[in-house]
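For the sake of transparency, this paper describes our internal protein records without simplification. An entry from our holdings is shown next, in its original layout:
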Amino acid sequence: MINVLRRRDPEQRRLRRGMYLLPSLFTLANMFCGYACVIYAMRGEFSTAAPFIGIAVVLDMLDGRIARMTGATSEFGREFDSLADVISFGIAPAVLGYAWGLYTFGRLGWAVGFLFVSAAAIRLARFNIQSTTNPDKRYFVGMPSPAAAGVPAATVFWLPQGLPQGWMAALALPLLLVPAALMVSTIRYRSFKTFNLGKRRPANGLMVVAVVIAAVATHPQWALVFISYTYLLSGFVGLALTRLRPRPTEDSAVAPLTPSPAGQGPGGDATDA
């Protein structure tokens, strides 16, 4: 019996090391996608470079979920994931946007790209701090960096030939400036980490997922642009609804006390006050 337990211990340790290694492999693949996007963008192959950011978004979602499901979360994994995200969702979209259209603006173009990289790094650093102190896991404070990177990636994938010269080329500037500003803003964006298809009405959730998959499979350019810009605008819609929602006044927040007979409290018992 003792020999059997001794043989099982090394197997369990190897299995445990494999469980901790699996999320890091997804993170490594995420970082490779960001690097590949930079390489293809420098070659001018934008229709090949842009999808790598979309693949990186999927891998970024998987590594966190796998780490939580297997109980393999660690400080090393969190820091490694943040460094990979700076490459995939900071440097890669900035280089892609610059090579796609911002290069026509010279120094202004690469300055805008640097602002995007800086905003992504600040956003990730702030997220690491707030993830341990924010009790509300339903929302992100500021636009998540994967979603912000998806805006220029989807746009470039939709128009790989670039924008025509002239005033139309100026539309490439807000392509990076707007997501950069939203990443460091305090606008709340919905987090899909708390969504669970198995809790309530799973058929409806599965149908939505099926529609999204079908749209991406049949018309990927249009579907990805629609998804990325819809999520970008959702933060403004939520902010407007919050501002328009009536706030409770002080009179309604505190319920008026019903006058009781003299010398008696609400329950009818005698009081000293």
